[in-house]
Write a structure and sequence with these properties.
single chain; about 0% strand; mainly alpha; 4 helices
Amino acid sequence: VQTPENHNVMCYSMEKTLCDILKPRARTDIQVISEAYKRYVKRSDKNIMLLSEFARQLGMERRIRAYLEVLL
């Protein structure tokens, strides 16, 4: 994608990012995680199936499911 300053940067999906912030080595603050998931479930372009697939591939289905069950 291109940034507002016209730089090209690599990016990936919201769903992959949501998985990455739950990885233990990420050490992401719980408030950041909660806010990210709250905003995600409110989006009209969310793809729960893709999020579930990433979670399965990364071995974190239980953690993702726990967040989604509370918010959905």
